[in-house]
Amino acid sequence: MEKVITKGQFLFGIAITAFGVENLIGARWGLAVPGVPWFPGNPFLAGLTGVALLAAGLSIAANFGARLTAILLGILFLLYVLLLEAPRVAAKPMSVSVRTVFFETLAICGSALTLAGTLPTGSSFRRWGSVLDKLTKSGPYLFRASSVVFGIDHFLVLAVIASLVPAWMHGGMFWAYLTGTAFIAAGVSIATKWMDQWGAALLGTMFLLWFLLLHSPRVVSAFRSHDRNAPAEWSSAFIALGMCGGSWICAWHARQRRQNEK
Asked: What digits encode the pLDDT tens for the residues 198-231?
């Protein structure tokens, strides 16, 4: 399992890079891309966001200045949560789709901060050490809260989740129940620190399977047919990949904690 969860940082970086590319494409053509989270309507701001996410993703994937980048990325996504997504949830508190984007953003924020907590501290920003330490320690809590909410929301829209399961897999409602349960179990595991390494690792595996079996074929099909929802499918796919990376980052964080406790 160790060889698997160490890939979390790389996959997370690739996902962030993909979001950056998507923003740059949208900014280049002046698009108000439907279904794409973290895309400012202004082309200039969209381009700026794209450059920031692209640079951050490459830095994390290549492990070059990754800790500082992860902290800044976590702060950026925390601002997204507070300034962009929270008002939308306040306006439509019963909307599962709006709430999902909020907690996806929070989960990516938590993943970035957790990643920063797993990397060597170094000597940079020593005077801010205590503040940054508290910030990075919040990462697993933000991620676990998101996982639990994802699970609860799955049970609120079981029919919708079941409809997304490829026909060849059969038993769509079974998979909907299973994934909802898995989300909640993983979140509780991370929160209680009971088998949290395994809980986070298995959650990441589930997201990876989603990326490969569910989202990737939909992305290919959407682009081939020039479907206007292709950008949204791209986003959903790489959110799944980012959540896979974030889950494995949490698993690695749990492993480090256990080693330090010995």
From this structure: 999 999 999 999 999 988 988 888 878 877 777 7
Answer yes or no: is pLDDT of 123 > 80.
no
Specify the pLDDT at position 102. 92
Angstrom distance (rounded) from CA 190 to CA 188? 5
Radius of gyration for the chain, computed over Cα atoms and rounded to the nearest angstrom:
18
Rounded-to-integer distance, Cα 247 and Cα 229, Å: 27
Asked if residues 44 and 242 have their Cβ atoms less than 8 Å apart, the reply is no
Cα 119 off chain centre by: 19
Tell me the domain boundaries of the chain.
2-256
Of residues 72 and 41, more confidently modeled: 72
Cα separation, 70 vs 62, in Å, equals 12
- Which candidate, 81, 63, 54, places its Cα nearest to that of 118? 63
